[in-house]
Amino acid sequence: MKEEDKKPNEKEVKTPEEVEPVTPVGTEDNGVKPEATPSLEEREANAKREKELLELEEDNKAKRMAAGRAEAGSVPVKPKEETDKEYKDRVMSGQ
Fold this sequence. Notes:
Blueprint: H1 40-69, H2 84-93
């Protein structure tokens, strides 16, 4: 169609060869490859490893807490009581 033949409200219609192809969203090739979804076996193996690591971490934490804080079986040391004579001798000697 020529420009003179167009009516003011008429839209230009393109043939299929003139129309640019439309790429669906998310399928563009931008150089990034999509990650493959892990298989059921891989997900189960990962879950099992995570569970084992969590158990080990809990065990280690409990051992660390018990290692330096356990007072079971220890008897507090009582200070030696000093007699009057021992006190006098210590004071007189200047200790």
